[in-house]
Amino acid sequence: MTFEERFDWRLFFIMLALFTISCVAIYSAIQTNQYSDNFVLRQIMWYILGSMIIAGMLMIEPIQYKGLSWYLYGAGTLMLAMLVVAPSSIAPVINGQKSWFLLPGIGSIQPSEFMKIFTILVLSRVIVNHNKSNQFKTTKTDFYLLLKIMGVTGLPVLLIMQQPDFGTALVFLGIMSGMIIVAGITWKLILPIYGVIGAVGGSVLYLVIQAPEILREYLGIKEYQLGRIYAWLEPYKYQSGDGYHLIKSLQAIGSGMLTGKGFGDGEVYIPESHTDFIFAVIGEEFGFVGSCLVILVFFLLIYHLIQLAIRANYSFSAYVCVGVVSMITFHVFQNIGMTVQLLPITGIPLPFISYGGSSLLANLMAIGLAFAVHFHQREFMFGDNNLQD
Question: Which residues cross the membrane (predicted)?
């Protein structure tokens, strides 16, 4: 088959739509004259670099990614560990978090963003190998698989919490949850675990409201983290502090009404709106209709990735696609949810649209895996799947 026949053109056009939306939204966001840098040009440069990475990833077969997975995971874990002990000259504390390395001539790089991709690869490999060696499944073998998945995810989460970056840690838990659901583990184990997680989450929220001193003393929760919860529940009570961004976001989205105020006609000032609150800019200028169109593009992306997972005849590829779907879905739901007060503010960007080099490159790497899955799919159409696993 020719390159044109093997290339995933549907995914290409979906990504082209997200690229266009990103550039338009960022250009509008920086018209407030609060920035001296041209973030649109920077975003285009990151997209170009990401496209080059995707082109390289396209040439690598999924079975080779499986072989590289533990090496990449190890390198990512090492970077996260180095970040914890690195001096402030190369790993400065920004907004209370030590999450970035400063590279001369390049800028900042956030290792946790790339670790998401490495974790997806290793989780896919662990699930495939476990299921292959335990074809006669029992509750005991499922429990071992559950421990493996939690162990692989838990290590980077623990290191990320040292930064501390609770929002990014939640993304890893979202990835883990999606992988557990499709790993073939019996629901006799899954339901109680998720029930316990729900109970713990509810208890923590209760303690935040009623007894925050317990969380500060025994769990090491920072005051600013508690402030985000309070600002989420009662933003107007904290409008001079943690609730400021949420109030402005609600005002922007609400004032956009059905069709918006028009491109470049935004009136509500939101600091750093080109990053985490880019959806508020879209909601104000393009209204409910424009916001729904953006959500529709994300729906098409997620639907297409699910179809790739279903059609994959190499089980490792299928699990990789599920991991990518879990990551993107969590990002979209959390980011849009926090701009409309559905969820607390966590600082998670809107994938492919918010400005951010590390985040965008990591997300494009995830899409690169999807491109590779589709590109090499037909080579194994009549092969023995067991040989590939």
Answer: 12-32, 44-63, 70-94, 143-160, 166-184, 191-209, 286-306, 313-333, 353-373
